[in-house]
């Protein structure tokens, strides 16, 4: 029955928001499961479907979600053929974690911890110590990496346990703070071309009786942000990375398992006023807000002192039919950031958290001109953003 025009809008129930499978089927569970199979002390197999291997390689393709592979069998024939192998042959995806964004997901992969523990809860988040908004991908303004994320990575612990450990990525990532807090441990080998990365990853995998190797490719995400996933540029990158995955799979040494995954999916948002709500031009949404963090589909909203309940009420009234709108404590209780929240992380989460349900984003045309111009975006809890593959090849 149609809702009467005079009736107030009914906000989305938080009970309808999909919660990531922390502890059994999220990105944070992958490396601990592999390390447990290699008998690294302190780890247990969190993803029960995976079979241990002496040599494990993780190839993370930035921005290539589960639904994008399903939708593009012609551009990605090799990856598409591996869909039945996902998650130990169950043919099911993993969940990225919330927000479904690169800084958060890479930290989850590398530390084996959900966002509420590793403490990178979004693209940007408030530093409670300074009151400033920190970009956790670009690490601006500078913050001590060890203070911001104090836990050791799985790579560091595996390396200490005698596992031959290496990361193979673009040289520019070697010294970044995000790499240091999320992916450090063992050797870093910088290679410019994708082909070189695949070749070196296979070589490093063969270099130890027990090996843990990570390699990464970013431009599927880059082209998606700039042109959208319905563009020739994006499809060209998908074709290219499909070839890279095949190249690596064909070089696996004996007793190896290759896992191909991603940090998030992506959704294209139309360039119209209904789909792109500009925070910088909306006086209602700005009222009582000190800082706007996160990104378009996963916003951290930091209220001025004393205005938290008013901001929550207004955001629910204005956006509640298109976004899941939660207070900080509601988002935590719902498990969006994981089963537990470290004390140092609590204040980094917004007083209000907005996760997109519909095909819509909250832009900030003045303060975030680059991000506001992106065609393809991600961050929320919807399947197209949240679900990622765990494709498997064994030798």
Beta-strand residue percentage? 15-25%
Q: Tell me about the biggest sheet?
A: 6 strands, mixed
Model regions low in confidence, pLDDT < 50 over at least 5 residues: none
Q: Structural class per helix/strand content?
A: alpha/beta
What's the arrangement of strands in the largest beta sheet? 6-5-7-1-8-18
What's the N-to-C terminus distance? 57 Å
Number of helices: 18
Fold blueprint:
Layout: H1 30-37, E1 55-61, H2 66-71, H3 77-81, H4 86-89, E2 94-95, H5 102-111, H6 115-118, E3 124-126, E4 133-135, H7 145-148, H8 154-160, E5 164-169, H9 177-182, E6 187-190, H10 194-206, E7 211-217, H11 219-227, H12 232-249, E8 256-261, E9 267-268, E10 276-278, H13 283-286, E11 289-295, E12 298-303, H14 308-319, E13 323-327, H15 328-333, H16 343-346, E14 352-356, E15 361-363, H17 369-372, E16 376-377, H18 383-386, E17 387-388, E18 391-394
Provide a quick synopsis of the model.
This protein is an alpha/beta fold.
Structure commentary:
With 395 residues, the chain is α/β, with parallel strands linked by helices. It has helices at 30-37, 66-71, 77-81, 86-89, 102-111, 115-118, 145-148, 154-160, 177-182, 194-206, 219-227, 232-249, 283-286, 308-319, 328-333, 343-346, 369-372, 383-386, and strands at 55-61, 94-95, 124-126, 133-135, 164-169, 187-190, 211-217, 256-261, 267-268, 276-278, 289-295, 298-303, 323-327, 352-356, 361-363, 376-377, 387-388, 391-394. The protein contains 18 helices and 18 strands. The mean pLDDT is 97. The longest helix has 18 residues, at 232-249. The strands form six sheets. It has a six-stranded mixed sheet with strand order 6-5-7-1-8-18, sandwiched between helices. Strands 11-12-14-13 form a four-stranded antiparallel sheet. Helix 10 packs parallel to helix 12 and helix 11 (219-227) packs antiparallel against helix 12. Strand 11 and strand 12 form a beta hairpin.
